[in-house]
Amino acid sequence: MSISEYEIAVLIPCRNEESTIKKVVEGFKQNLPEATVYVYDNASTDSTFKKAQEAEAEVVSESIPGKGQVVRRMFADTEADIYLLVDGDATYDPADAPLLVKTLFEGSYDMVTGSRTGLKENSRKGHLFGNKIFNRLYRTLFGSSFTDIFTGYRVLTRRFVKSFPAVSSGFEIEAELSVHASQLRLPVLEVPVSYGNRPEGSKSKLRTFSDGFEILKSMLVLLKENRPLSLFGSIALLSFLAAVGISIPLIDTYAETGLVPRLPTAVLSTGLVLLSLLSLISGLILDSIAKARVEIKRLRYLQVPLHES
To answer: Which ranges of 108-152 would DSSP assign to H, the alpha helix?
Structure first.
């Protein structure tokens, strides 16, 4: 099949973007005229819904706030062969869309992400620093080569979308998308895209500290769910080393006198050893469960056809 035979859906989650949404919809209609543009209004309190309708997009209202919630709804509702997911704040250039779609199609990738080349110039210092730290943390935890896991510009295949569990509720959904690709070892590629300033009247919904904490918490949960042996094995090792460290003086005293004068320290050391053993056993059990879940998700992924019948 040629790319012209594939049905393309442009998915735009937005909240209170009345100043930008019409421009965004029109930009994607111009650059991907064969695509259907869907706008999912995520509990806006302004005229975003009306502006999107004026731009002749397919508009759906999602009353539960949170980017993860609206992405989950979009993936469940829409049927297409290729999905383009993009933020509605006009920071991403619609002119990059044909290249992303073509790269996905010709390279047989399951996800092509737009790596933001203008992020340094157009982001707040707190966001830029957090993005850098989380990308490094992600590569450490999941061993992926992603350089921009929080980009809001992605092209996905049908089988990626329909096998993606989407359990996150907020901005951490971006990290979950990346973990899904890394976990199933799907073919993915990053393509540099331009990233512009927010137009006047458009405000970022990302809260530096609270959302950063939620993303960090989500990454730890994802680590527990996907690599539990690494998490609980680390806890086991630290507990065991701590037990050994506080036991050395006790062992020396016992060797010299045959007595254990500091009973609380001995009890603490014993407790840490038990904690180490329990953590290791928990990690081994959860690791077996995690591998079974990956197998199930992989089988689900393989069952989804690349295009609608």
So the answer is: 119-122, 125-142
Stated length of the chain: 309
Q: How does pLDDT run across 172-200, given as a tens digit for each residue? A: 788 889 889 988 999 999 999 998 876 66
Burial (Cβ within 10 Å: 0-12, 13-18, ≥19) of residue 292: exposed
CA distances from 74 to 41, 45, 196 (A): 11, 20, 25
C-beta of residue 7 within 8 angstroms of C-beta of residue 15: no
Q: Quote the pTM value.
A: 0.80
Straight-line distance from the first to the last Cα atom of the chain, in angstroms, rounded to the nearest whole number: 13
Q: 112 and 191 in contact (C-beta within 8 Å)? A: yes
8: β partners: 82
Dihedral sign, Cα of residue 150, residue 301, residue 221, residue 75 = positive
pLDDT tens string 117-141: 756 555 555 556 667 777 777 777 7
Nearest one of 15, 297, 304 to 166, comparing CA atoms: 297
If you average pLDDT over residues 74-81, what whole number do you get?
95
Chain CA centroid to CA 273, Å: 35
- The owner of tokens 């706008």 is 39
Q: Check if the beta carbon of residue 96 is closer than 8 Å to that of residue 151.
A: no
Residue 242: phi and psi, rounded to 5, are: -65, -40
Range list of H helices, 143-262: 158-163, 173-183, 208-226, 228-257
User: For residues 130 and 212, what is the distance between their CA atoms, to the nearest angstrom?
Assistant: 7
Q: From residue 292, how far is each of 35, 142, 206, 285, 289 by CA, in Å? A: 37, 18, 35, 11, 5
Cα dihedral value 191, 184, 83, 7, nearest 10: 110
Element holding 278 (H helix, E strand): helix 263-303
